[in-house]
């Protein structure tokens, strides 16, 4: 039975970034040093503060980067050096500044035709996690974002991808973006051991209120419920200003 989401409110986005980095460090140090630690990075702009924090002490020195394996929750259909690339954002703000081995960086090949990118990434996940057909990876930690329409990763409202219960990675057409995206599915996310949504900014407040306190099943972000794991929301006070008990 999925745990109840736990909401942590911080005074500003920098504090969200620090708390997320601290939790990442705590989790990786709590796991067996002989095995890889798998982290899914989210896209968009919110994780930039987390990435920047991880490039500073104590994280740059204390995270055992040699056993951290990085994955992405979604990607845009662009090459890795394109300004819209989620991998590109992480490369320039994190990967270039921490000693994570390049073999540990498992980017979604956005330069490929979208369906081929999805199939290729699914193969990479199955290979890395040694998955039988139909089983899902167990990421140690997954960071997620939230769009103002309630999407997360590239799982958008009304998308057929929301009902995908066999594949781990899909390449949905996103009407509102007039573009394909490549995204992990709820099946791929919901076997994670620990999921943290990072949400900052007053523009997310109404969506966050509806996602956390409104009727279930209305937003893609509400479909992210780890079956045997923890679900946490790290938000700043601006994003949380409409939540019950806010400002008490
Ligand atoms: C993407 C993300 C997406 C993002 C949200 C929030 O590729 O854009 O994966 O799901 O997390 O849209 O984006 P911001 O952090 O920029 O608000």
UniProtKB/TrEMBL annotation:
GO BP terms in the entry: carbohydrate metabolic process; pentose-phosphate shunt
Sorted UniProt keywords: Hydrolase
Keyword Hydrolase included in the entry's annotation: yes
Protein family according to the UniProt entry: Belongs to the glucosamine/galactosamine-6-phosphate isomerase family. 6-phosphogluconolactonase subfamily.
PANTHER family (alphabetical): 6-PHOSPHOGLUCONOLACTONASE (PTHR11054:SF0)
Function: Hydrolysis of 6-phosphogluconolactone to 6-phosphogluconate.
Protein name: 6-phosphogluconolactonase
Species for this entry: Candidatus Kutchimonas denitrificans
Lineage of producing organism: Bacteria, Pseudomonadati, Gemmatimonadota, Gemmatimonadia, Candidatus Palauibacterales
Underlying gene: pgl
């Amino acid at each position: 039975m999925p745990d109840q989401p736990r909401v942590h409110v911080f005074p500003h986005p920098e504090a969200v970034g620090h708390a997320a980095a601290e939790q990442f460090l705590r989790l990786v140090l709590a796991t067996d040093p002989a095995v890889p630690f798998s982290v899914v990075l989210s896209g968009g702009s919110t994780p930039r503060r987390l990435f920047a924090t991880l490039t500073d002490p104590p994280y740059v020195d204390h995270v055992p980067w040699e056993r951290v394996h990085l994955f992405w929750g979604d990607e845009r259909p662009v090459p890795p050096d394109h300004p819209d690339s989620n991998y590109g954002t992480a490369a320039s703000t994190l990967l270039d500044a921490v000693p994570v081995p390049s073999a540990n960086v498992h980017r979604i090949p956005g330069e490929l035709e979208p369906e081929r990118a999805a199939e290729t990434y699914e193969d990479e996940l199955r290979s890395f996690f040694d998955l039988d057909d139909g089983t899902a990876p167990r990421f140690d930690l997954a960071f997620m974002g939230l769009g103002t329409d309630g999407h997360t990763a590239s799982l958008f409202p009304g998308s057929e991808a929301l009902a995908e219960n066999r594949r781990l990675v899909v390449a949905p057409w996103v009407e509102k973006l007039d573009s394909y995206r490549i995204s992990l599915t709820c099946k791929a996310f919901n076997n994670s051991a620990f999921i943290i949504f990072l949400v900052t900014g007053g523009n997310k407040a109404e969506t966050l209120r509806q996602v956390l306190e409104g009727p279930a099943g209305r937003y893609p972000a509400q479909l992210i419920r780890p079956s045997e794991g923890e679900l946490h929301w790290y938000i700043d006070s601006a994003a949380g200003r409409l939540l019950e008990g806010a400002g008490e």
